[in-house]
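Quick bug: Sema domain-containing protein output formatted oddly.
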Amino acid sequence: MLVSALPSLLLLLLLSFTVRTWTSRPARVYLSYKELMESRTARFFSFGFNTSDYRILFLDQDQDRMYVGSRDYLVSMDLGNINREPLIIHWPAAPSRQKECLMAGRGRADECANYLRVIQPLNRTHLYACGTGAYQPQCTLIYRGWRSEDYVFRIISGSHESGKGRCPYDPKQENMATIIDGVLYAGVQVDYMGTDSAVFRTMGHKLPIRTEQYDSRWLNDPVFVGSLVVSESSFKEDDKLYILFRERSLEGESGPAMVSRIARICLNDEGGMRSLVGKWTSFLKARLVCSVIGPDGVETSFDQLRDIFIQQTQDKQNPLIYGVFTTLGSVFRGSAVCVFSLADVRAVFNGPFAHKEGHGYQMTAYTGKTPYPRPGACAGGFSVTGIHSSKLFGEDVLRFVRTHPLMYTSVYPLNRRPLLLLSDASYTYTSIAVDTVPAADGEYTVLFLGTGQ
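Here's what came back:
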C-alpha cells in the first residue's frame, strides 16, 4: 500500500544498498527522489490519466506482474519487461452516481470517483477488485489470463456487485483486505457515515461474520494497517488471521489517546448459536508497544502503527512482524521500527484477559474463572478437539468473549526496544519492506524505508 504525491508511479527496480542491522554502526543511506532518478536504479512511469492516488500496489509473483489501483483506473505492469506497454482498465463510477454524490454534499468533486482500494487474487486467472464508487462501494471480477504472456486484462461483464463490508465509502479511509481460499476478510468502515467499523468475512462458502456492532470494546475508531495468515498447529482448524491496526484507547485516562493493536480470529469461526449470531466468537486483541526510555528515564511511546512487513522464518508458525510507528504528539516528532515475534504475540493471547469493573475504573487482569473452552480458541483445534463448531460453544464462553476482547498484557518488541529510531528530522517513516541478503560473511537484513518526502 503506497500513496504517491507524484503525478505518476515510480517503480524501484534495483536499490543496491544494504544495512547490517546487528552492527553497532550500521550503514544507512537516504536517497531523495532526485538522487534516486539520477542513480539510474529506478524507472519513472507516466500514465495517460491524471491522478496522484497510487495507494494500492499488488505484486503478482505467479505472473510476474504489478497491479496498481488508482482513481478510476487499474493498471497491470509486466515486471519481466518493464518497457512493455502496461494494460489499463478504466473503471469510473457511473455518471448518475457521481451526480448523486455531489448533490448529497458528502465529498468534494475529486472524491466523487471510484478509488480502487482492494485488489486481491481470487484464483489463478481472476482478480477481485473493489472501489469506493463515489461513496457507493462496488466490486468486480477481472480476468488476467493464465500467464503474463496472455497479455489480457479486462473486467468480466456482469460481475459487478455491492462492495459494502468489503471496501470503504470514503477514499481517505484506510482499509485491510485479503482473500483466503476464496473468502474475503476485510477491515473496513461499513456505513456511509463512517461510524460502523468492522472486521468482515464475506464471499465464498463460509458464513458471513463480523465484529460486534457499535461496541467500542471491540473496535474503537480503528485504522486498519495489514494482516497475516498463520497455521498455528498441525490442525487446520487452528488456522488464524492476525489483523494489525491502530485505534482510540479505552485503557484509562493516563494512557495514550491512540494505541496500536494486533487482533486475531479463527478462520473456521461460524459465530454463535444464540449469542453472537453472525459475529466472531474468537476475536481477541492486544496492544503493541513500541517505545524507548531516554537517559532521563522518561519513556517515549510510538503509538501510531503506520505500516507492516511480514518476514517468514524457518519456523513457519512464528514469522517476524516489522512495524513502522510514529509519535502522536506535536512536541516530539519521531519514527521507529519495532520487530515482534509471533511467538511473543501468541504468549500474550494465552495470558490474562483485561477486565474493567465500570466507568472510571482502571483496567486490571481478570482473576475470575475462565470458561471452557478458553475464549479465543478455535473449535476443533488442538485444544478444543471435542467441539467442532463455534455454534456449540456455551453461553458463558460467548458472554465472556463479548465483554473481554482485550488482553491485559501488551506485546513488546524483540529486546524490548526499537530496532531503529528517527528523531529531530523533517520527515517520518511511512512504509517498510525487508529483505535478507546472503553474503560471504553472513546474512544481511536490508530495510527499505519510505518517507513522506
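Actually, after a second look the formatting is fine. The chain has a mean pLDDT of 88. Closing.
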